[in-house]
Amino acid sequence: MNRTGIKGDIRLKSWIQFLVTVAFIMVIASVSSLLRIRIDLTGDKRYTLSKPTREKLGNIKNDIYVQVYLDGEMPVPLKRLKRSVREMLDEFRIASGRKIDYEFINPADTKDATQREAQFTELYNKGLNPVNIQVSDGEGGRTQKMIFPGMIINYNNIEVPVNFLKNNPSVSYEQNILHSIEGLEYEMIQTIATVTSDTIFKVAFLEGHGELPEIDVADITINLAKFFTIDRGSINARPGVLDTYAAVIIADPLTEFSEADKLVLDQYIMNGGKVLWLAEQVEVNSDSLVTGETVGLYRPLNIEDQLFRYGVRINPEVIQDLDCMVIRMSVSAGEQNQVVPAPWYYYPKLYPSQDHPITRNINKIKGQFVNTIDTVGLDPKIRKTILLSTSDQAKTLSPPLIIRLNEAGQIPDEQTFNKSRLPVAVLLEGVFPSAFKNRMTENLLPDNTIQVKTESVENKMIVIADGDIIRNDVRRLGTTGTPYPLGQDRVTGEMMRNRDFIVNCLNYLVDDHGIMELRSRELKMRLLDRIRIKNERTLWQLINVAGPVLIIIIAGLIYGFFRRKIYVK
What we know:
4 domains, alpha+beta, ten-stranded mixed beta sheet
């Protein structure tokens, strides 16, 4: 065979190899598009859905339509949040068997100001929180723009809002964006699981012992109603009266519990019922402060022995903290009085633990006349986690005590504030012993045949040494009242995170699928080292310019070498 024929065979083989390669790539691409094979190569597995999320999405019966109001011109960090939302929705869509569809909407995409304002009002009424940002106007200037970083989930004509953006003033803007991205999976799947569930858990506010009235817990009731059916009711020594509830809330009782009520509550816990305790051992009448002073007195509730058996003790002492809320105080300014804000050490800002899903990435909590709490006992079956604590500059006062309003205007002796991180709220998990073990109970309940269970199933409860954490302020108008948002500081307008804390507590208590654990998810910020960039700028510029040229030259030499090997005999 001549040289021309050999070259022709080589070209034919090359073309065949080329066509086979192209066909192989097309087959792989087609199969991949059908199978949706995805590999998460990130170190923190940010694109991998948890097992509880996949299970919930796999059980969705009907289609879900999602409207995401995070589109249009926005700063780079928000664009990163937008991209993360889109990627998460793509993962949700695949895991649900394509039962989730979504679109991104710019609510400000209209030149009609009236129509734009109507759209903003509608989104706000649906539960999305607006945020003001600065964007470029295209002419080198900056303008203010309102956005709604959140989504509306529509399922069976039921619309539920999901807000993305965290707003913790104690961390930077970039960190808030990162925390928002970390919480995307939890916020989205928690809402989807609630709206698609065939079973809605029931939660009851306990009555009968002077607990907070409905108006004082109106705000948290509205927010808990997004996840649960909310009831109110008394025990009245009725065995099993609490059995239909996934959890009960005991919100700041004023009078003692009877032994019969304690037994009913104890057996509810033994059988798996969850309890959120908010109780104090010192009674302070805040309303009396309008006269200039009030008193703090020891207030037994007859639940001390019961809580002790479960592993905690609420101490009859009131906390003062240098990191505190402020109140309005009238001071003399010449011939006139002037109202100024002043620190009120009896209203501490409580620090949430950042190591637990209940309290991770939430800001400080507003407390009022808070007591301390101790963990007791060494029962290995009970795990104890501190959820809230004071700052590093706190102290305690024991009753009886006189509390004067003019203390707000006095310079404190900081040396006396020498107690650090005093516990205020504790999570208890495990197997609890009954408070009525080895006790006579025949005469406590109307049915003497009831068998008292002496040890609980695997269970959990939360004990908070401040009943006011769950109480919203009320604007009184005669015999009626309008509740303020829970946690709102009426002096500064700052929103403390009482509402988020209580909602997280209840969701954690009734969560049997591990969804709340998603709040522990942590993504690492991979920020550029600015000092290293400055020092190595010239080197990397040289690499970026000369590197591609060098690669082309080397590739050309290799190609020429093998070409000569093939064609030159």
